[in-house]
Amino acid sequence: MADAxxxxxxxxxxxxxxxxxxxxxxxxxxxxPLEKKYESSGGGMGGSFEAVWMPSAHExxxxxxxxxxxxxPAPSPGDPPSRIxxxxxxxxx
Length: 93
What we know:
Structural class: mainly alpha
Radius of gyration: 24 Å
Mean pLDDT: 77
Number of strands: 2
Shape: elongated
Order of helices and strands: HHHHEE
Strand content: 5-15%
Distance between the termini: 75 Å
């Protein structure tokens, strides 16, 4: 009886530790800025499965990549300079 109780207690402790680790990882990921979450293109095997099973998500990812890599329009002569807000350059169009 004592051996079974010890095994159940060990399993419960391991389960609590695993759940705590998952909660911490999710909390850290949720606080990351949106630009940092989707920096990688997610290619490889996952990209091919996404293209086959969820083509709309794959197309949305491709469009996001296109918009991320798009260059900002050059300012016209006489325009006021752009503002820098932290890591972002804000162009007033």
